[in-house]
Amino acid sequence: MSEHKGHQYDEGHTVAGWGGTAVATVGAALLGVGVCGWTPGTWLGLVVVVAAALLTWALHLTGWGKAPGPRPADQWGMGTRDASARAGHPNCLGCRLAGRRPAAAPDRIAAPGAPLAGTPVSGAPVPGTRAADAADPVS
């Protein structure tokens, strides 16, 4: 932990995150100027904000982003490239949109016959249904 200069958590700093944030900030500034009266600023700002989203996604897919959740401590550095990005990250919307689907998400693997986390127990009311609302004493 001492090698991480005082922090003990994965703060998620990545090239994709910082690059996308910088470009989106410029887009937001242009949008602000557009709201103040310079009409081309509105359209330029919208284009730059969309470009920021596409840039962040492209950097994520090339390994300069990170998977959802914490990374191993040896990958906390901002300049560390994610070698597993090519195969796709479990539970990652960006990877799913690109058609990258990993074989199985590690947090969804269960013993044979055991229910997966989040699966309703037999006979229990499913949240959001009328049976669940009738069983809820607070409502």
Folded structure, characterized:
It is a single chain. This protein has about 140 residues and is mostly helical. It is elongated, with a radius of gyration of 21 Å. The longest helix has 26 residues, at about 40-65. About 40% of the residues lie in helices and about 0% in strands. It has helices spanning about 15-35, 40-65, 95, 130-135. The model has no long low-confidence stretch (mean pLDDT about 80). It has four helices and no strands.
Order of helices and strands: HHHH
Share of residues in helices: 40-55%
**Beta-strand content estimate:** under 5%
Low-confidence stretches: none
User: What separation lies between the terminal Cα atoms?
Assistant: 47 Å
Overall SS class: mainly alpha
* SS summary, helix count: 4
Mean pLDDT reading:
79
Outline: elongated
Seen as an oligomer or otherwise, the chain set is single chain
Can you give me a brief rundown of this structure?
The chain is mainly α and 139 residues long. Helices cover 42% and strands 0% of the residues. Helix 1 (15-35) packs antiparallel against helix 2 (39-64).
List keywords for this structure.
single chain, 139 residues, mainly alpha, 0% strand
